[in-house]
């Protein structure tokens, strides 16, 4: 197995302290938002044999296994991250596989450069994802019941929100949600900025359930995404709890440290809380306008100590082991590729000693015995 040397991305929303604290390093004073583990071409992990992209390209079947190559092609189909949100991320949604293929082909035909700021589809893949909390973790996930959203907006006492409140009382529910989100994102920017400022002041005054939206407005003053965020469920994960985010589900991470895994894609359509491009017509094509429960996941334990986070897709499979005794060993050998990540304590993986934030890549079929006292996350695929 290969010890991984991983890139930390300094996005502006990142916490300056959470990842350094996990790694036991000194903060630099700059935001440290994400640490990437995998073979994404934008920031592949490094090994003694070269980057993980180079290692896999040299012999895909040996590194990934025949079954994974047959199912997903000669590439690692997931990207594992440690994510540290010190401020809200953009409100966003991801396409399903068919939508991604169609959108990518269309933008390729139109000759839009892949790095153009107004391009929506960087690849032809979908991007389901899972976030597992390492600390208390706040996020937004899926639409509230429209009547609940109407009550939340109405209680702010902002006159310019009354039309949205009325729309949310209409039927059917999906049409009501679509109309309101469309109205918010296409409103006159100056009028919307004033409405958001009034709503933010009311959220600050009311506190309680409104506190997350006051904080969002503090980071994104005047942004229509503040009101769009109030249409969504607010959820607070406790350590070990997770959220699965499928295609078409609007979401945003607000604050906290977590382990994130996703299909290896860059396809994001933004709804707000960002200075980046918002393509309203394409966004409305992708979003699934139906209220839903956030669906907090808790891991299912098996007799061998593996705690699995069940998801409906095959590109990734995330589980964890909480190892209570230094003397006990677990055989994690699989016929598929794995990344093992330590998040607490000290874990021995093969010949490697892993402390929090350290990880290894295990080629398909390679012996993977782990022991120690700590928490180990295991990322692989279903093939």
Automatic annotation (TrEMBL):
EC category: isomerase
Superkingdom assignment: Bacteria
Entries under InterPro entries matching the protein: Man6P_Isoase-1, Mannose-6-P_Isomerase, Pmannose_isomerase-type1_CS, PMI_typeI_cat, RmlC-like_jellyroll, RmlC_Cupin_sf
EC number(s) on file: 5.3.1.8
Localization in the cell: Cytoplasm
Keywords carried by this UniProt record: Cytoplasm, Isomerase, Metal-binding, Zinc
Active-site positions on this chain: 270
GO biological process: carbohydrate metabolic process; GDP-mannose biosynthetic process
Domain Phosphomannose isomerase type I catalytic: 3-144
Cofactor(s) needed: Zn(2+)
Reaction(s) catalysed by this chain's protein: D-mannose 6-phosphate = D-fructose 6-phosphate
Binding residues annotated for Zn(2+), in chain numbering: 92, 94, 129, 251
Described purpose of this protein according to its UniProt entry: Involved in the conversion of glucose to GDP-L-fucose, which can be converted to L-fucose, a capsular polysaccharide.
NCBIfam families noted in UniProt: manA
Record-given protein name: Mannose-6-phosphate isomerase
Species for this entry: Streptomyces coeruleorubidus
Upper taxonomic lineage: Bacteria, Bacillati, Actinomycetota, Actinomycetes, Kitasatosporales
């Amino acid at each position: 197995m290969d010890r991984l040397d991983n890139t930390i991305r300094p996005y502006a929303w990142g916490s300056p302290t959470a990842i350094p604290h996990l790694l036991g390093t000194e903060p630099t004073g700059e935001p440290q938002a994400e640490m990437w583990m995998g073979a994404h071409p934008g920031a592949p992990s490094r090994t003694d044999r070269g980057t993980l992209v180079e290692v896999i390209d040299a012999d895909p079947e040996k590194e990934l296994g025949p079954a994974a190559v047959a199912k997903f092609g000669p590439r690692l189909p997931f990207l594992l991250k440690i994510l540290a949100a010190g401020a809200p991320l953009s409100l966003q949604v991801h396409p399903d596989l068919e939508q991604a293929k169609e959108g990518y082909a269309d933008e390729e035909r139109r000759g839009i450069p892949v790095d153009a700021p107004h391009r929506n589809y960087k690849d032809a893949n979908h991007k389901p994802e899972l976030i597992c909390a390492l600390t208390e973790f706040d996020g937004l996930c899926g639409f509230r019941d429209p009547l609940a959203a109407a009550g939340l907006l109405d209680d702010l006492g902002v006159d310019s929100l009354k039309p949205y409140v009325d729309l949310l009382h209409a039927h059917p529910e999906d049409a009501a949600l679509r109309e309101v989100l469309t109205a918010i994102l296409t409103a006159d920017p100056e009028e919307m900025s004033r409405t958001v400022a009034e709503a933010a002041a009311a959220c600050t005054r009311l506190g309680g359930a409104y506190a997350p939206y006051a904080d969002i407005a503090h980071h994104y003053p005047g942004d229509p995404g503040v009101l769009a965020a109030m249409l969504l469920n607010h959820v607070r994960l406790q350590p070990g709890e997770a959220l699965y985010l499928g295609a078409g589900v609007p979401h945003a991470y607000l604050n906290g440290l977590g382990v994130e895994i996703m299909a290896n894609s860059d396809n994001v359509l933004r709804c707000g809380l960002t200075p980046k491009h918002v393509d309203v017509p394409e966004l409305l094509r992708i979003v699934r306008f139906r209220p839903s429960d956030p669906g907090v996941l808790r891991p299912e334990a098996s007799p061998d100590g593996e705690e699995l986070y069940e998801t409906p897709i095959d590109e990734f499979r995330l589980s964890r082991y909480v190892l209570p005794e230094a003397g006990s060993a677990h055989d994690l050998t699989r016929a598929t590729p794995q990344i093992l990540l330590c998040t607490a304590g000290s874990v021995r993986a093969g010949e490697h000693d892993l402390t929090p934030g350290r990880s290894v890549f295990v080629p398909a079929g390679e012996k993977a015995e782990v022991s120690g006292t700590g928490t180990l996350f295991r990322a692989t695929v279903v093939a």
